[in-house]
Amino acid sequence: MRRPKIAVIGGGTGISVILDSLRKKDVDIAAIVTVADDGGSSGELRKNIQQLTPPGDLRNVLVALSDMPKFYEKVFQYRFADGDGPLSGHPLGNLIIAGISEMQGSTYNAMQLLTKFFHTTGKIYPSSDQPLTLHAVFTDGVEVVGESQIANYQGMIERVYVKQTYNEDKPRASRKVVRTILESDMVVLGPGSLFTSILPNLMIEEIGQALLETEAEIAYVCNIMTQRGETEHFSDSDHVRVLHSHLGQAFIDTVLVNIDQVPQDYMDYNQFDEYLVQVEHDFEGLRKQVPRVISSNFLRLEDGGAFHDGQLVVDELMQIIQVRK
């Protein structure tokens, strides 16, 4: 029997949890990863190497889908110390992706080579082969440019959109991305930052249109925590409302919601300073927007942070796939 095809869309840190568990299943995986990050190491590299799509999220996805030994992973993820001059703060993996992108002529080509080199389970596609800049329009009319700057503005985001960073051309999806979405049995959105990890992919018109046209089951893994400068005071229903409004119609079939409680005073807000409180539940609002709501214990507590338990989430996704067969 043909293996189910599952595409996962988002940013590297959030979706890596799902991908790491999903690769252990008998499925055909494709990860579609945002290229709008302009902060940290990725931001510095894209300033210095024009046409480079930011490598940080791609690096994390590469590790999640690879069977590389832990030592190789440690080497690939090694971050240069603060006192290392121009190399300060750069993960070694980002520099490798940047170098191979230059050698191969594009980040898309680099990722196809690196997936073979690291024996990954599945394909990895940057959502666009050109670096994109994220724009956020707030409810007071102020527009903030740059993913790394959005959380610094005190206000509520009304909408986001993306533009090519170095020219006025219309943002285009990378090769095979649209076809992958259209041919998938399931498309998984998130988990990850709503406005800065998930929506930058959907705001590439070809990708948004493919999500509206695909016959795949579209599942959204709702965040556990609200995020400073993005989703303050948001309920789970608000997250879905924003996704639907950006594409102009309802398109999500299933929402997965964590209902386990993060213990009071557990979060290490020095380490996870972007997170605020748990996302509030509005099940009535969710049921008005989506056909299926799955609420369960998806919580994993680790090192002072609240994360999704990838295995529990993937088990639910696989059950949905089985029902659809």
Automatic annotation (TrEMBL):
<dbReference type="InterPro" id="IPR010119">
    <property type="entry name" value="Gluconeogen_factor"/>
</dbReference>
<comment type="similarity">
    <text>Belongs to the gluconeogenesis factor family.</text>
</comment>
<keyword id="KW-0963">Cytoplasm</keyword>
<dbReference type="InterPro" id="IPR038136">
    <property type="entry name" value="CofD-like_dom_sf"/>
</dbReference>
<comment type="function">
    <text>Required for morphogenesis under gluconeogenic growth conditions.</text>
</comment>
<dbReference type="Pfam" id="PF01933">
    <property type="entry name" value="CofD"/>
</dbReference>
<protein>
    <recommendedName>
        <fullName>Putative gluconeogenesis factor</fullName>
    </recommendedName>
</protein>
<dbReference type="InterPro" id="IPR002882">
    <property type="entry name" value="CofD"/>
</dbReference>
